[in-house]
């Protein structure tokens, strides 16, 4: 068995599940999918949108997960990049 350690963000999704770096989440407000990723450029975790919403972001680096103020941000974990790579098929991240 191969184990991958994932960094806990300190946040939980809409179902109370802990959100970790590498998780793939659905963001209900925009009906978009994103990956929780570390940004070396900004030295923090952020959401890296992989759908159409990403095109509307000015900095193209994602929305910073710790800057959000909405309760639980309507995020739902749908998998992670290690156990569910099929969720990222045909996507350039």
Automatic annotation (TrEMBL):
<feature type="domain" description="YopX protein">
    <location>
        <begin position="4"/>
        <end position="89"/>
    </location>
</feature>
<dbReference type="InterPro" id="IPR010024">
    <property type="entry name" value="CHP16711"/>
</dbReference>
<dbReference type="InterPro" id="IPR023385">
    <property type="entry name" value="YopX-like_C"/>
</dbReference>
<protein>
    <recommendedName>
        <fullName>YopX protein domain-containing protein</fullName>
    </recommendedName>
</protein>
<dbReference type="Pfam" id="PF09643">
    <property type="entry name" value="YopX"/>
</dbReference>
<dbReference type="InterPro" id="IPR019096">
    <property type="entry name" value="YopX_protein"/>
</dbReference>
């Amino acid at each position: 068995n191969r184990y991958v350690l994932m960094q806990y963000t300190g946040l939980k999704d809409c179902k109370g599940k802990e959100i970790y770096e590498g998780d793939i989440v659905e963001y209900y407000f925009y009906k978009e999918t994103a990956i929780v990723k570390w940004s070396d450029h900004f030295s923090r975790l952020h959401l890296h949108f992989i759908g159409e919403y990403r095109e509307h972001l000015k900095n193209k680096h994602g929305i910073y997960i710790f800057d959000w103020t909405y309760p639980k941000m309507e995020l739902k974990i749908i998998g992670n990049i290690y156990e569910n790579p099929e969720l990222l098929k045909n996507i350039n991240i």
